Backbone:
């Protein structure tokens, strides 16, 4: 089945030091050099990283998803005007000031990409993962979305339509995953704990809770 690809409405004097080729080591080396020269304060840097990993991060998006699962009226607002509905929960910024939420169903599966660069809804998903920014993902998910999803461990039935949404700087997307079975009695906090970043990008589904988590 040929995937549907949707686009946003508009486009979008110091000492030399050897830097390791590995990206993680490179970042550490540059961080140490900046701290050593007094350009960057390590505590401020740690606070910034904590903000994006734990506050402006996937847990925000998970709360949006959990609210939509638990509150049909909020879900309706979210699908009709995602930008405003997400702002209701206090999540908004210039990296996500125009949002569209697309809902997964038993017959439709949505997946997000940015083919031109790596536009990503920071307020609800935090920093984009390395694979999202990679050229292979950005090109292959459009050409062969089912193959890419299988590589992530998600094998969809042939009768499920795959829709690929292309983010831009003007319009960014969030997937509303299917609510898994066995969550009927879970509160929003427990529902949010089930939601992963990958499910909100569309390369995974939300797994049902473990037996001991049902209450």
Residues:
């Amino acid at each position: 089945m040929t995937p549907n690809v949707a686009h946003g409405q508009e486009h979008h004097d110091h000492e030399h030091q050897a830097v390791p080729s590995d990206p993680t080591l490179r970042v550490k080396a540059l961080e140490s050099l900046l701290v050593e020269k007094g350009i960057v304060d390590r505590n401020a840097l740690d606070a910034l990283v904590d903000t994006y990993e734990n506050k402006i991060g996937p847990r925000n998006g998970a709360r949006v998803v959990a609210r939509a699962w638990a509150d049909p009226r909020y879900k309706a607002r979210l699908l009709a005007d995602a930008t405003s509905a997400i702002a209701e929960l206090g999540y908004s910024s210039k990296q996500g000031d125009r949002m569209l939420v697309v809902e997964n169903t038993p017959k439709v599966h949505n997946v997000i990409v940015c083919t031109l660069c790596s536009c990503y809804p920071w307020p609800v998903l935090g920093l984009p993962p390395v694979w999202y920014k990679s050229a292979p993902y950005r090109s292959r998910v459009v050409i062969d979305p089912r193959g890419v999803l299988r590589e992530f461990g998600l094998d969809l039935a042939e009768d499920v339509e795959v829709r690929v949404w292309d983010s831009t700087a003007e319009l960014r997307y969030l997937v509303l995953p299917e609510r898994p079975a066995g969550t009927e009695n879970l509160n929003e906090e427990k529902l949010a704990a089930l939601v992963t970043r990958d499910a909100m990008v569309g390369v995974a589904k939300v797994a049902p809770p473990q037996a001991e988590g049902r209450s």
Remarks:
- The first helix runs from residue 23 to 36.
- The chain has a mean pLDDT of 84.
